Amino acid sequence: MPHRPSLTVLNSRITRCRACPRLRTHCQDVAANKTARYRDTSYWGRPVPNLLPADPVQAAGARLLIVGLAPGAHGANRTGRMFTGDRSGDFLYAAMHRAGLCNQPESVEIGDGLDLIDTVVTSAAHCAPPGNRPTSKELSACSGFLDQTFDALPRLRAVLSLGQIAHRSVLRRYRRLGHVDRLNRYPFAHGTQFTFDQAPALMCSYHPSQQNTFTGRLTHQMLLTVLERARKLISDGA
Description:
Elements: H1 7-15, H2 21-33, H3 56-60, E1 64-68, H4 76-79, H5 87-98, E2 119-123, H6 136-151, E3 158-162, H7 164-176, E4 193-194, E5 201-205, H8 210-214, H9 220-235
């Protein structure tokens, strides 16, 4: 059987990564300069690890992987936890709670009691990028962590990509393994779902960014519908 990395060990590797100087400098600069609202807060200011269920056995057995773009500068880069401490996280975890994928609707900070259910949350890039735009080189540098996350989840049945960049990052993983040939055969669109013979199903949602949620491009019901479909997919035949 192939060696499967420990999710805990993987998270330790992620937080120690120094592969992208531009991103590391940006994370540290944001942590040093802060924003007025959090001027008295200590920032995490380094790569953000995957968010796992609290029980290591349940984490390794998770059947849903949610993939975002990258940590928010004053959200996850501040709190050290994926989608935590900003409006994107407020939007995501409220919907996840309603769909039965986490135990509470809020994610404020590490230690607030949040626990995931049958789900792991990761991102295409683990450092907050300037302008929320990692370069293709930076995404490539982080792709090894995405591969290792997949490898550590042997029961994975579905992946939910939040936004086009996350979607293409997952597809590149599938292409590396020979599950797909041309990425353009699997275009991103909210609510779409693709199935594969030897890879987890891939579902798509708009990213819960403020730009999308404030304008109504992504509503709570739209995200909830996708998450409920994902929950049903991983539960069917369990």
